Amino acid sequence: MELGSLPMLMNHFCEKLEGIHFMIDLKENKRAEEGEEEESTCQELIEHLSEDIDTLSSILVDIKSVLKQRQQKVDEMKALTHSLDISSLQHLMDNIPPHLPKPVKTDPTPLQSCESETSVASSSSNDKENIPNKRSRSRGRKHAKAVYIPALVYITVEEFEEVPKYMKGRLNYNQVNTVIDELNKALSEKYKILGMKRTTLNDVNRKRYERYKEQESKDTKGEHFIVDTDIKEFTNFKLDSVGRSVLTILRHCGRTKEIRGGRLTRYACIEVY
Questions:
Q1: pTM for the whole structure
Q2: 193-224 per-position pLDDT tens digit
Q3: Hey, CA dihedral for 160, 161, 167, 171, is it positive or negative?
Q4: Which of 19, 82, 96, 201 has a CB 3.0–4.6 Å from the CB of 206, allowing a cystine?
Q5: How far apart are CA 245 and CA 167, in angstroms?
Q6: How far is CA 183 from CA 106, 143, 234, in A?
């Protein structure tokens, strides 16, 4: 480009300067815009952090409140613990009797199916000819009735302590109530058989059924009792001198009574309420 005169050269130089100023202005505007975006981004981050801090502060307040309540509970439990006699409680825990008395009348036990009831006998399970057929078993189930199973109630520690020493000898409280468990087994097995129909019984239980009926008399009406034979058949209780002493204690404590007659001694269960 040829420059003919100095004014033309001045004009050209001014145009170049204006271009440079324009470029500088564009660059500064761009930097300003980028700075505003960065500043906006930082502001948003600060706001998010502030919200998070507020949330955490609220959570901390809730935690402090819960901790305060728990501490109050702990203080109450400590005060309760100090008010208790730990030594006496430990003594009670160490001396809980295995047999706790339950002076409640036993509810009638539903009669089981013939097949399960005949299992009370310890023998004759191999005699298949005496087992009722399916039709007779189903009839037995349809006409099953409730059978009352009597039970002796445990004696209490107070009752045992009131028993004269000549009766107790060396017997202790637990031994007496263990014998009650054994006698209850004999009562349960006997009256399960008596609650069944004779047609559903096998030979062994039929003979027992007949023997039980023969043991009844006018004096046993309304009574539930067992005899020495029942105790030997259904329990591990030995009728030796110690066993007789236990029976005497049970009679003294009002758990049993004896009904004699026909060369038999019947130990009848006394209901305790």
A1: 0.51
A2: 999 888 899 999 999 999 999 999 999 998 99
A3: positive
A4: 201
A5: 6
A6: 15, 29, 9
